[in-house]
Amino acid sequence: MLKKSVRFIYRRSARWLVPGPALREALRDSIQGLFSDPGNQRAIDACLDWILEAQRNSASQDGGVARHYSFIKGWSASYPETTGYIIPTVMEHARRKNCPHLYEAAKKMMDWLLSIQMPNGAFRGSHMHAEVIAPVVFDTGQILQGLAAAATTFGEPYLSAMKRTSQWLMEVQDPDGAWRHPNPFAAPGDHVWETHVAWGLLEASRVSGDASFGEAGLRNIRWAVSRQLENGWYQDCGLGNDHTSPLTHTLAYTLRGIVEGYRFSSDPALLKAAIQTADGLLSALSPEGSLPGMLNAQWKPTVSWVCLTGLSQTAICWFMLYQFTKQEKYLVAARRANQFVRRTLHLEGPSMLRGGVKGSFPVNGDYCRFQLINWACKFLIDACTMEEDMKGLTPSPSKT
To answer: InterPro entries this protein is in (predicted)?
Structure first.
């Protein structure tokens, strides 16, 4: 059996002529499997340290967070989109820990983003070494979350920048609530995962008091819900041209936006829609806490690897739905999912590995192959923080 596993990994990895570190990590994942569970606080601290390491080592050296660490090529350039929504996470833990260097790191990220904001309020897509420079709705919406957090804590100039960004998103939004602004980094067509952009507008509305931002966000979320199938699945949810089996990452983006829409509006129709999608994802959860990286319209797996980002995002949504509904199935599922992702972490060894979260598990899966990615780190921190905050207030999985 061991020889068979080695041959399988070797054949699969050899297609990319991967160097030793990538091949060794793929073999480690597939043969040794998961580590022991380090628990929430140790995972949070390790992931925060990794994000700061990614900021220090970004190939573009601009104050942003490197998109990823590659087992093949090393550190990448900074990624504006994900740096944007990493900021609220770093600031939250700066507050909790009363930690000046975390505030400084978050402010450095935010000041860099202000320096690259376009005159119309939008932000470029992709990472800083990408050849194409164009305003992208999705990336702009994620950065809006960081602007809202910075405006709340620091005020100007982040408040004015947040308002300009929100106005641009409203200007390019279609009357039905969808965004169909050209995106050179995604397939053309409708994208329900832009409810995660709508969430940024909801945050901007809370911070500024401008109701029009919230109305625009809810318009998009209600449009997305109108595209939902009866079993909670979404067809217009893929990143590429194939919409038959979207990533759990984009399904969870869509779900989070709807959950946030309910949190903002208390609209029972949004809660109902969120529950339908959450229950579909729940049906695909394995006993050990993993979700397949891609799911078809029957919530069945189409790949064997796990998208760790999507798993952490889904855990967050399940925690939130537990808070809204008190249905213990969501709490149990979220804890199992968190434990699975925590057990993929390296907590010893070189600094570029400690606390980094892989795109796929095993690492040679198709999503961000052979990479530790910054947004997976952010979502695991958020998910573990939620779990830690709920300790002692809720029943344990063993009692459900």
So the answer is: 6-hairpin_glycosidase_sf
What DSSP string describes 335-362? Answer: HHHHHHHHTT-B-SS-TTTBT--BSEES
Instruction: Please tell me the class of the 16-399 domain.
Output: mainly alpha
DSSP lists the bridge partners of residue 360 as: 307
C-alpha to C-alpha distance for 165 and 95, rounded to whole angstroms: 26
DSSP state of 124: B
Cβ pair 248, 201 in contact under 8 A: no
Residue 135 DSSP label: B
CB 336 within 8 A of CB 28: no
| Residue 78 near residue 109, CB atoms below 8 Å | no
Alpha carbons 354 and 349: distance in angstroms, whole number: 6
Placement of tokens 């529950």 in the chain: 275
Residue 400 to residue 380: CA distance in whole angstroms? 24
Inter-residue long-range contacts of 350-356, CB under 8 Å, 24+ positions, other chains counted:
351/49, 351/53, 352/53, 352/57, 352/69, 352/74, 352/75, 353/69, 354/46, 354/49, 354/50, 355/43, 355/45, 355/46, 355/47, 355/48, 355/49, 355/50, 355/53, 356/47, 356/50, 356/69
Q: Please report, to the nearest 10 degrees, the dihedral formed by the alpha carbons of residues 174, 178, 179, 183 taken in order.
A: -140
Buried b (16+ CB within 10 A) or exposed e, 4-13: eeeeebeebb
Cα 296 to Cα 29, 246, 247, distances in angstroms: 25, 7, 9
For 164-210, write each residue's pLDDT tens digit. Answer: 999 999 999 999 999 999 999 888 889 999 999 999 999 999 999 99
b (16+ CB within 10 A) / e for 376-385: bbbbbbbbbb
List the beta bridge partners of residue 66. Answer: 78
Domain boundaries, the chain: 16-399
Residues 6+ apart with CB under 8 A from 329: 282, 400
Tell me the whole-structure pTM to 2 decimals: 0.94
